[in-house]
Fold:
Amino acid sequence: MKNNDAKRPRRTRDRILDAALDLFNGRGPDRVTTAEIALAVDINEGNLYYHFRTKESLVLALFERFEADTMALVATVDGADEAAAATYAGFLRQWFSLVWNYRFLFRDLVGLVALAPGLVEPVRAISATMRLAVGDIVGRMQKAGLVTIPESERDAVLTNLWIVSTYWAAYLNLQEGVGEFGPQQLDWGLQQVSSLFRPYLSAEAKAELEALVESDI
Structure:
């Protein structure tokens, strides 16, 4: 039986989300109009409103995509070689790529909450889920002898890892006034997370982290 998936056009709803994500990442949701999104998809605004009645519904749908991608990423650690430092370096690489792909959610978080109040609870929920997942991953690393974090420091280290690895883009935007994001900013965020991890890593894990920092995400 022939697979016709490659020939099947993407659904209009998916194309709208693709275009919105690209435009939101580039300029921020508050600077992008629904007319621009419709133009990018080559549909009229009425067709766009059929799928998404408000810009808030667009933001929430993109967050649902991000949430699904996040859960899929967490699942990749299950069944991987838990004793290999490369497993965790790969997870960190993919997490930063994911944050980068949805960077408007983090860079523009304060403004987004005003635009889409319905985002507050989903953000809290995914944050709680991911903090638990990160704790589990670090626990696996400790079991494998790749990292040693004193029990008295563990909660603080895990919290700081989550904050920095997730909200580095918001920091650069709000604190440093960085509006345009590129590889330099991505490298900066990765360096910050690396500085938190480095003191607790084994030699093997430290080598993997250094290789990750020096490579292109």
